[in-house]
């Protein structure tokens, strides 16, 4: 498969050429400041947002953030800054067991 | 994050969205480069967020497709502040107007007080002030400053010896010293009249007392002219205050030196006026720009302090008058020089004698022209009142 071939090349390049993985492989980069802030780059869109839960679409799978009194401070096409009290950050893989 | 300052400057709007699939709408919005922040959920199907004012119209289009309903809640930022300011501009105008009025009224003359003058002189002073434009209700910065008023009053009102002009707040205080103080009726004690200098008596007008000398008599200084002791011989003399004028011919010598050539400056009528505001030491021209092209000039500068209520502001209003002057050389002929010199000498002597003295005759004793100067010695004959009082003391009498 062409896609997995490209993916393998990218993974190899990232490993051997000392390039950051998120740039090479379109992975999300998540920065957390304690429990109060979470900053996610490279997401693919908003799926659900309540004050207790935020669900983001990633290139592969989804990211589920649970907590309390969420406020999206900023949202840009590929970045999101969430404020509140964060309890869990969960990756949901794209397999038959996933929620979607 | 975007700079909050620009957001404030261009204004922001809080949007409330109700409906299903709000997340989908948010995705659409951010993909269309609409900047969204402070997204909050209220209940199951309501969300609020903030956007820039310039995006507010754009989002309607996207919202219509999504099937959600939106409403705009709060508006803040500079454009809305400005709008409110315009709506309430009456207050602002009022405040500015108030300050302007207080400022103007602080610079109006509200009173002129004249102290130490007789009613007649006061009337004259007030008329002179009127002519200068110093009136109640006029602006202080359009009239002369205190020194100028002082100078003009002393020049134009003859009765004044000195006048002090002081501006206290909005009132001009004029302290006047008159040449002729109102005469207090003096109760005269018994006295004689004696001569104050040697003279030949020309006329005698005696109101009271006994004449001792007569017309055409030569009298020495200190000689008794009119006695205060009257009464018939053999009786106890009565003491009175001798009163009257004794006119005598007196002599004065004058010495004058007058240069034949003299140079002085005269204004030729060309002038330039400049007005400016003075902030501390920084001058801002208001009217009258450009440089003058006068070679020889004199500058007159008037500084008017501006007031606000009782305080002096660090701002002054300055008006300058630059007048061109020309050098003028005056040359007298011998004849003219002599006449001038005599006049000068006369003026000198007038200062020494009483005002009512009469010049009878003048004679040039000596005339030299030396080093471009006329040197004259002049002899004057003057008729003046030579009588002065001398009290009669009891000791002399007894």
UniProtKB/TrEMBL annotation, chain A:
Pfam families for this protein: YabP
Domain of life: Bacteria
InterPro entries referenced in this protein's UniProt entry, alphabetically: Spore_YabP/YqfC, Spore_YqfC, YabP_sf
NCBIfam families: spore_yqfC
Protein name: Sporulation protein YqfC
Provenance organism: Neobacillus kokaensis
From TrEMBL, chain B:
Domain of life: Bacteria
InterPro entries: YqfD (IPR010690)
Membrane-traversing stretches: 91-112
One Pfam match: YqfD
Keywords: Membrane, Transmembrane, Transmembrane helix
Protein name: Stage IV sporulation protein
């Amino acid at each position: 498969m062409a896609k997995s071939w490209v993916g393998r090349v990218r993974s190899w390049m990232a490993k051997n050429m000392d390039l950051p993985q998120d740039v090479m492989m379109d992975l999300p980069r998540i920065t957390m400041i304690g429990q109060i802030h979470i900053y996610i780059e490279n997401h693919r869109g908003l799926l659900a947002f309540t004050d207790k839960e935020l669900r983001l679409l990633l290139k592969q799978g989804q990211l589920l953030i649970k907590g309390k009194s969420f406020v999206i401070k900023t949202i840009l096409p590929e970045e999101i800054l969430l404020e509140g009290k964060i309890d869990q950050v969960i990756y949901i893989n794209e397999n038959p067991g996933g929620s979607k | 994050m975007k700079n909050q300052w620009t957001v404030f400057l261009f204004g922001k709007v809080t949007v409330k969205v109700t409906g299903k699939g709000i997340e989908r709408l948010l995705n659409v919005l951010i993909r269309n480069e609409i900047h969204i922040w402070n997204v909050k959920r209220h209940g199951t199907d309501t969300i609020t967020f903030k956007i820039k004012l310039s995006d507010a119209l754009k989002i309607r289009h996207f919202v219509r497709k999504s099937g959600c309903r939106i409403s705009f809640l709060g508006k803040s930022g500079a454009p809305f502040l400005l709008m409110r300011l315009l709506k309430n501009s009456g207050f602002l105008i009022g405040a500015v107007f108030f300050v302007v009025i207080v400022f103007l009224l602080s610079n109006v003359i509200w009173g002129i007080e004249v102290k130490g003058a007789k009613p007649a002189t006061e009337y004259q002073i007030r008329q002179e002030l009127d002519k200068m434009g110093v009136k109640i209700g006029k602006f202080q910065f359009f009239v002369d400053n205190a020194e100028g008023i002082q100078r003009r009053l002393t020049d134009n009102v003859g009765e004044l010896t000195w006048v002090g002009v002081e501006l206290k707040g909005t009132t001009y205080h004029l302290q006047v010293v008159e040449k002729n103080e109102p005469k207090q009726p003096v109760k005269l004690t018994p006295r004689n009249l004696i001569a104050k200098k040697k003279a030949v008596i020309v006329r005698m007008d005696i109101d009271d007392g006994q004449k001792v000398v007569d017309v055409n008599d030569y009298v020495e200084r200190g000689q008794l002219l009119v006695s205060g002791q009257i009464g018939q011989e053999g009786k106890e003399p009565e003491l009175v205050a001798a009163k009257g004028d004794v006119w005598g011919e007196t002599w004065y010598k004058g010495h004058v030196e007058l240069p034949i050539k003299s140079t002085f400056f005269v204004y030729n009528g060309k002038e330039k006026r400049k007005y400016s505001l003075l902030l501390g030491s920084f001058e801002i021209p208001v009217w009258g720009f450009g440089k003058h092209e006068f070679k020889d000039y004199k500058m007159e500068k008037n500084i008017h302090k501006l007031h606000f209520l009782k305080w002096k502001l660090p701002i002054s209003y300055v008006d300058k008058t630059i007048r061109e002057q020309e050098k003028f050389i005056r040359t007298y002929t011998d004849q003219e020089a002599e006449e001038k010199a005599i006049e000068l000498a006369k003026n000198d002597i007038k200062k020494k004698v009483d005002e009512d003295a009469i010049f009878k005759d003048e004679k040039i004793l000596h005339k030299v022209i030396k080093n471009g100067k006329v040197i004259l010695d002049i002899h004057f004959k003057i008729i003046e009142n030579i009588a002065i009082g001398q009290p009669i003391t009891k000791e002399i009498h007894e």
